[in-house]
């Protein structure tokens, strides 16, 4: 067999199910080899960026990497935005690119660029296959590195002449190992500090959405009553209906849940990355005593300098704490009244506009209330990037982990439509809703054809304001005005018809939930467009600017 056949066999051995991408001339041998696979499905996309976002969402939902594929030069550069998004948001991914023949890489040559060095800053590891005999070792390492906490993207480049070379090597067997666990003494010190606290609070980051970690966190909170603030990416780590769920932090402005941090005498950070919500926003005066428990040591800065730290498998660390709580059931005596007040006040805030009956522009709060009512506990919402993301982060709460997927580290627009395609492939039995601004939706609008070709049951909701609304919001906050950020849009219903999607335009707030149910009942993809009332953006800024934590 040839080297490209061996690479495909290695991917099969690793359990890779999907590769998304756009083939090219320099990866033709790999594509011919992939076509023979009965275990890996190749999904042809309309742009490499869409392919990378699809692979990212597959990784976030399953914990296993999918591949995204591009050729050399522009194929590789088109991938990089989605790859960077995946890597910064801790999603396992394999990035597979072709390359020109190794005999021409030392000189100026058609479409040749140093792809590996381009990908190194946005991946955990990037390498070139220079000899077919190295393929089994490279692919075993690539998948293992991608999966290892914290997960991320790995890039493997295969030059076209190396792909053709003969080889008699075979894939390496896959061995999986338990993650290292925290030190007993570290957990003992942390438990002693928790026992001495009066108003402890938990900030849960993206590490808490792993199934085992979420389970142990819920058990810990049920036993202790300690409240949980979730970052955007940790939504659903605890059930939104649990009394210890204090909803979400992450807005640039101080919000009601942040009042619970102000009142806390101990902040327990679990699976938390600084990129999710910088500690200068909640510990600017350095007054908070911080405990860090995560798969990796803390990233230190002047606002995040933990007093205690436990490094290792997060779920196991929480299990160790639960064992200690069970052994001393009467040792924890907390004053959680301020957290209960936060939950009460934020619950009222979320429900404030649930009965809106406006026509024309519809408030974000009303839309998200109805979306939550229409969706089941295990259904999946994906948020693109824009002003709508801030509203989703604040107003859409979750029952289960990995049911609200938000790009938050690299924060790339164009994420939600291709991401919904991957979500529907992973969970065809669930309702999948992507919420996009009109700007972000148009950045990968070509993937509407991919969704139609695959006949996927997804609903894409576009909040239309004919402008870059988030930028306008931020400029208004800083300068009191904004630059020209307006643009035109297509006739949305004609666009849906052109791609053979179902199309719906909702202009009455009373029709949002019923139209969503109609979309869920339709076979194939549906486009739901809502003229959104982004006057609420500056109104929210004003209210939050006047917020006082009196609890």
From TrEMBL:
Signal peptide annotation: none
Domain Thiamine pyrophosphate enzyme central: 187-321
Enzyme Commission (EC) number: 2.2.1.6
Domain Thiamine pyrophosphate enzyme TPP-binding: 384-529
Entry-linked CDD domains: TPP_PYR_POX_like
Alphabetized NCBIfam families for the sequence: PRK08322.1
Protein name (database record): Acetolactate synthase-1/2/3 large subunit
